[in-house]
Design goal:
By secondary structure, the chain is an alpha/beta fold. Helix content is 41%, strand content 22%. A 5-stranded parallel β-sheet has the order 2-1-3-4-5, with helices on both faces. The chain has a 4-stranded antiparallel β-sheet with strand order 6-7-8-9, covered by helices on one side. The protein binds calcium ion (CA). Calcium ion (CA) binds at residues 8-9, 51, 53-54.
Length: 227
Amino acid sequence: MNILVVEDEKRLADALGQILREQKYMVDTVHTGTDGLAYAESGIYDVVILDVMLPGMNGFEVISALRKKKVSTPVIMLTARSELGDKIRGLDSGADDYMTKPFEPGELLARIRVMTRRKGEIISDELVLSNTVYRASSNELFCSETGKHLQLSNKESEMLKLLISNPGRIISKEELITKIWGYDSEAGDNNVEAYISFLRKKLHHIGSDCSVITVKRLGYKLEAGNA
Ligand code: CA
């Protein structure tokens, strides 16, 4: 995952770079609007974090130029000012999100996760693990051995997508909540538990040999061959 930080306050730019690298993102940092545009134009970034007040070109100009060039990379704008006018102007010029400085690093990270989830959604229609197939176009769960299939609700689909694209990886409740309900939702552990239980029933019903395993205190993982 590549992130571009465009911020002229060097101390903040460095701090952001460090926080993001700790999360295993690849980060490039530039300090002027002109450089920001030149880097972002490459289209190699998954997210651009863009300050408003910048030397060279300001953040609004950078994002307008980017969108004019059909670069659709998600942009999170940063500004020291909290006026509503700035926010509207930022979103009008094509920003995807907006944060007012100072902000909590955790909040920025959560917003980045939401942005990258949007971009990274399903490329192929079918996700397969062992005898179990999830078909994205119809939200359908299907067992290639028994031929049984079932419809999933939107939330169940989101959850299954995440589990089946990361077989064997432990996914925390927090990650499930952020990716499925959004970072500012009021969903809690009990929502996750309820949907995990729906999914287990449906997997069992179609004759899937995959199981959602609870890993105590850490989260859940999907594994094949446990039926
Ligand atoms: Ca600035």
